[in-house]
Design brief:
alpha/beta; 9 helices; 20% strand; 4-stranded antiparallel sheet; disordered C terminus; Rossmann fold; disordered N terminus
């Protein structure tokens, strides 16, 4: 017996399917709304204008990441959501990163570690995870961040951390975290202000990084960081474009 999701794909018009494929390639979330009476399906990409009567249902489906049934104006609808796989980009091949490399895949995150310090960024320390021993300035322009990416900067080195933090804020990453004490972060904020980063954007940085669970060891800090990232993913702002219904 076919599932509702399978029926949605089978009855989807070519234009709707093409829109879905294009959104997937661009790593943008999509909701396909199917009228269960007529079988007609429409795709809506996150950030687009939604029909006013469907806006709340589509928005909730995007937020939850789960398909749903809805009855609107006496019409039975099935809303199926297609979210890009969440990514975690960690700046710094440190002990916290080693723990995150074991935890992140369990939570469904693709993970990449970037660190130009070849003494730290070694395959022996990070087997099974994508490791790029290069400067973030050289990596990120060819591997752009996006709204379904979390960035955690953990090197304690402004020369390495500051650029990717700015890039993550510009890209609208759903989570931007930075390791360091409140004093360290205050200094970091001054550098970002001097670089032209707005107060609103600076306020999006989670620092000190991770949930406040009294974490002490690298493994405990990694748990706190991943938990905070998951919370940010589930509570993220859709960021509707200006003029959306």
């Amino acid at each position: 017996m076919s599932t509702l999701s399978e029926l949605t794909v089978k009855t989807m018009e070519l234009s709707t399917l093409q829109k879905l494929i294009a959104a997937r390639t661009a790593r943008r979330a999509t909701v396909v709304v199917s009228d269960l009476s007529s079988g007609r399906a429409q795709a809506f990409i996150e950030g687009e204008r939604f029909p006013a009567e469907w806006d709340a249902a589509i928005s909730e489906t995007l937020r939850s990441g789960r398909p749903a049934l809805a009855t609107l104006n006496e019409r039975s609808l099935f809303l199926n959501v297609y979210l890009p796989p969440p990514r975690l980009v960690v700046i710094g091949a440190v002990h916290i990163s080693q723990a995150l490399a074991r935890l992140a895949p369990v939570a469904g995150f693709d993970m990449t570690i970037i660190d130009p310090r070849t003494a730290f960024a070694t395959i022996e320390r990070f087997q099974g995870v994508e490791l790029l021993a290069d400067w973030p300035e050289d990596v990120l322009p060819t591997r752009p961040l996006d709204r379904y990416t979390a960035l955690a900067a953990v090197t304690h080195d402004p020369k390495i951390d500051d650029y990717p933090i700015r890039a993550a804020l510009d890209a609208g990453c759903f989570y931007v975290g930075a390791l360091g004490s409140r004093k360290t972060h205050a200094t970091r904020m001054e550098r970002l202000r001097s670089a032209g980063v707005s107060e609103e954007a600076i306020g999006r940085i989670s620092a000190p990084i991770g949930l406040d669970i009294g974490a002490a060891s690298p493994a405990e800090i990694a748990v706190a960081v991943l938990a905070e990232i998951i919370g940010a993913l589930r509570r993220r702002d859709r960021g509707k474009q200006e003029g959306a219904a």
